[in-house]
């Protein structure tokens, strides 16, 4: 996701869509990108995260006050819709003008909730910024419905929307390989610290004796991956194998808290215990409720 969006920003693309099934970690990925994009483009690149556009009805006043609030404007609620729109445009223009890039980046989370009218109002902001020589890259992040919405816009010849906000696409995925899983588990062994300031990793804190003799969660990656696969087969879950980050992290947290030093104080996590942790995470029940969908990996 970082590589795709970096290209979009570098080559001044007006926008694109990031799509994936629920609970993969898309919102956390946006929060991560907000922290690391300045390393790539400088601290003066304005990057905003719009996260609360969930209105069932397309209301212009609510739309602009939501954007004003999420970009950090001090006066988001007062005034008519036209005043809020002007206030937002001026705020973004000022932010973009102070950047050497003369541009702003806006992530819109849960973008499948946007109505067609919302896109029209976004175009107003886009066009006004363009008149002030400020480029705006809008990154729509949401579920697979975003693809359906783009197809509908193509069929109804809404090319002005596609050309501004849906030029590119990138599929966001969960854990799909043993290598993916190994990288995540290694974070608990090496990167994450608990308690804060202790210098100890999560693995060391919850399984101190096992850690002392060389056991690491990363070494469980193949076994844990196989357990996920086996439980899917037993439950007759079809479709592309993918572990949403929410359920993976919940599985690991359950193993640490339930089996570690503050729980049952079991020496180390076995295959049977991983099965218990996966069931406790809700992963199997969630997969059974989601229709099987096969994705075109070439997208």
From TrEMBL:
The highest taxon in the source lineage is Bacteria
Q: Recall the GO molecular function terms of this protein's record.
A: ATP binding; ATP hydrolysis activity
Q: Which residues form the ORC1/DEAH AAA+ ATPase domain?
A: 16-148
Q: What InterPro entries is this protein classified in? A: AAA_22, P-loop_NTPase
Question: What is this protein's record name?
Answer: ATP-binding protein
What keywords were assigned to this record? ATP-binding, Nucleotide-binding
The region annotated as signal peptide is: none
Q: Please tell me whether the keyword Transmembrane is annotated for this protein.
A: no
């Amino acid at each position: 996701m970082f590589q795709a969006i970096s290209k979009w920003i570098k080559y001044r693309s007006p926008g694109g869509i990031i799509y994936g099934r629920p609970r993969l970690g898309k919102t956390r990925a946006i929060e991560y990108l907000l922290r690391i994009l300045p390393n790539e483009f400088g601290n003066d690149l304005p990057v905003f995260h719009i996260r609360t556009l969930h209105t069932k009805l397309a209301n212009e006043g609510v739309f602009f006050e939501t954007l004003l609030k999420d970009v950090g404007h001090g006066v988001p609620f007062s005034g008519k819709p036209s005043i809020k729109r002007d206030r937002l445009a001026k705020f973004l223009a000022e932010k973009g003008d102070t950047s050497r890039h003369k541009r702003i980046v806006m992530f819109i989370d849960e973008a499948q909730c946007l109505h067609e009218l919302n896109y029209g109002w976004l175009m107003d902001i886009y066009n006004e910024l363009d008149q002030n020589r400020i480029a705006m890259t809008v990154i729509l992040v949401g579920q697979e419905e975003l693809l359906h919405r783009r197809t509908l816009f193509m069929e109804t010849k809404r090319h002005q929307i596609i050309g501004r906000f849906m030029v590119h696409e990138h599929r966001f995925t969960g854990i799909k390989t043993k290598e993916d899983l190994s990288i995540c588990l290694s974070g608990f062994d090496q990167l994450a610290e608990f308690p804060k300031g202790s210098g100890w990793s999560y693995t060391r804190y919850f399984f101190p004796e096992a850690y002392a003799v060389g056991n690491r969660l990363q070494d469980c990656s193949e076994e844990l991956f196989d357990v996920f696969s086996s439980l899917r087969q037993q439950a007759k879950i079809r479709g592309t194998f993918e572990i949403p980050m929410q359920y993976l992290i919940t599985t690991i947290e359950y193993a640490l808290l339930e089996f570690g030093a503050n729980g049952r104080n079991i020496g180390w996590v076995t295959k049977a215990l991983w099965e218990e942790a996966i069931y406790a995470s809700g992963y199997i029940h969630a997969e059974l409720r989601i229709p099987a969908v096969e994705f075109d990996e070439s997208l």
